[in-house]
Amino acid sequence: MRIVLSAGHGPYTPGKRAPDGFREFWFTFPTAELVAKYLSEYQNVSTMKVYEKERDVPLGERTRKANSWGADLYVSIHGNAYGSTWSDAHGIETLVFSKTSKGYKAAQKVQDSLIKATKLTNRGIKIRPDLWEMRKTNMAAFLCECGFYTNSFEKKLMESESYQSLVARAIVNGIAEHYGLKKKATEAKPPTTPKSPASTPSGGGMYRVQIGAFSVFRNAEDLEKAAKDRGFSPFIKKEGNLYKVQVGAFSSKANAEKFLKVCKDKGFKTAFIDK
Question: Are the C-beta atoms of residues 145 and 79 closer than 8 Å to each other?
């Protein structure tokens, strides 16, 4: 299966940015890269990227490449906006050319997967025959609006690595379910003996954002549910006698600190970075 990936707009496209200067492409580029990475886990799937990190690629060039390649599916990843100032508009929607277009059923699967993963408001499937990428592609095509970068909360999510990964995985899961994609077989690896904490190199591991820790598992579950209700994707990690509730893991401390601020702004005032 041949899948084309289009990261919405480009690094220098004017206007496609939040009131604080955050650019839509800063979300769409890393998310599209992750979609390509996750699709590589499946059998008989090839991807083509019709965007570039350092150049605004015209839509005509993107669709011509997709058509020339004979792609089966065209996936365009975007962030949404309402006006040029902060607003309350929120949620996720997926756009298609028409209800009878090749991509409609695939778009439904992807939309459902995005909502299940992110817990954001479901704005549904929207019909948009005016969009170039929908009109000019010969294959099944849909466009995902993965949150509003003019909404201060959703914009903070969109600039976080954990949300980008969450969205990318959800898009791939929806595609895989619709088209019946199969994972590649993985080679069995011999078990390794974990290193003791004393032998772990200084600075190794991930920076994790922790919002709570409990000795009672039920309490950790309650906090996990509260975090999900606020749009996060939490997980519970047991260490010793404690059940730690965490909502993000980052290789970069700077990115972890950004996401920590998102957590505190959303009500988790005692959150901190655990490494």
Answer: yes
